[in-house]
């Protein structure tokens, strides 16, 4: 039986006394999130893609929400920068959020985002996905509010989140949320470590648990060549395995509030590329980064799954000693 609204309010408020609020020097929640990032990864600047997704709340607003005795879904969604609209639509291949698009068939997503590893060679060719940023992604809640939301998993909890945020179970947003939760709940492949986080702090803590603070972060927000067939002019493989630690790829999934899906797959490889793009009558060159993951094909071999780093996708790599 679905939880009532009053029960959901209690879920939102439970454990308040156990939460320690930090941020004496912070003037707003976004600065608090940045401070917590710096605490874990002092040498890694927070990327622009995440800066745009930090919470718009003031500390005063956050405290009021924590201490509230009633809950207004519309006010919460508006103030916290969430996407609670029922008719929202997400593109099938933008910024990594495509992996949780309930309207896209798996084969369509693969066609839009992945390419064959054999094209990672000089004179190879590939079709880049739609590189334009996805605008319909909610802000990340601060850790305090994220922890007070109904439990993110198991997938059955989606009804509690829908009721709390006033979203119809028959809406497009509901289907997108279910798809996100299903992907987060799926058992990882052999050799894969994965975690879905509903706060920036949770994502950074996961990365730090694998690499410590000695980590490099790669992003690519260029839209040059978006959706076009491009030629590969140079390829170089990164020496990204340090101490046996493979890189971590984080995708930002579609949900009313920020959700990151981060996974590390044993044997993954990272390639630096130079691409040739035809724009009008000119040939333009741009740099890019690609990641190849390897999964068992069920017959004792491995199958490569390669995709570019683009949009809101984050690629974390252990930093070699001495750098």
Rounded Rg: 20 Å
- DSSP, total strands: 10
Number of helices: 10
Mean pLDDT over the residues: 83
The description of the largest β-sheet is: 5 strands, antiparallel
The arrangement of helices and strands along the chain is HHHHHHEHHHEHEEEEEEEE
Distance between the termini: 56 Å
Shape: globular
Unreliable stretches covering 5 or more consecutive residues:
1-23, 93-107
Strand content: 15-25%
Percent of residues in helices: 25-40%
Q: Give the neighbour order of strands across the main sheet.
A: 1-4-7-8-9
Please state the structural category: alpha+beta
A few lines on this structure:
The chain has 323 residues and is an alpha+beta fold.
């Amino acid at each position: 039986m679905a939880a009532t609204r009053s029960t959901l309010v209690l879920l939102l408020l439970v454990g308040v006394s156990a939460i320690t609020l930090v941020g004496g020097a912070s003037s707003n929640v976004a600065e608090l999130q940045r401070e917590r990032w710096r605490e874990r990864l002092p040498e890694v600047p927070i990327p622009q893609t995440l800066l745009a997704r930090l919470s718009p709340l003031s500390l005063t607003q956050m405290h009021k929400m924590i201490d509230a005795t009633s809950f207004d879904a519309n006010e919460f969604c508006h103030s916290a920068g969430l996407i609670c609209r029922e008719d929202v639509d997400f593109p099938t291949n933008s910024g990594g959020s495509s992996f949780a698009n309930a309207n896209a068939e798996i084969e369509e997503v693969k066609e839009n985002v992945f390419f064959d590893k054999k094209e990672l060679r000089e004179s190879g060719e590939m079709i880049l996905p739609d590189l334009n940023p996805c605008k319909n992604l909610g802000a990340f809640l601060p850790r305090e509010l994220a922890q007070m939301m109904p439990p993110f998993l198991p997938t059955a909890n989606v009804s509690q989140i829908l009721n709390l945020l006033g979203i119809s179970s028959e809406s497009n947003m509901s289907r997108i949320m279910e798809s996100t939760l299903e992907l987060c709940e799926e058992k990882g492949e052999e050799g894969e470590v994965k975690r879905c986080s509903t706060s920036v702090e949770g994502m950074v803590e996961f990365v730090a648990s694998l690499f410590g603070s000695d980590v490099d972060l790669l992003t690519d927000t260029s839209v040059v060549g978006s959706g076009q067939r491009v030629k590969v002019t140079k390829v170089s493989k990164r020496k990204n395995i340090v101490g046996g630690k493979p890189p971590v790829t984080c995708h930002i999934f579609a949900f009313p509030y920020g959700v990151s899906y981060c996974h590390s797959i044993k044997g993954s490889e990272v390639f630096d590329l130079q691409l040739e793009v035809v724009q009008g009558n000119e040939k333009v060159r741009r740099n890019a980064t690609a990641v190849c993951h390897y999964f068992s094909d069920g017959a004792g071999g491995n199958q490569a799954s390669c995709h570019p780093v683009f949009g809101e996708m984050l690629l974390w790599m252990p930093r070699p000693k001495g750098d």
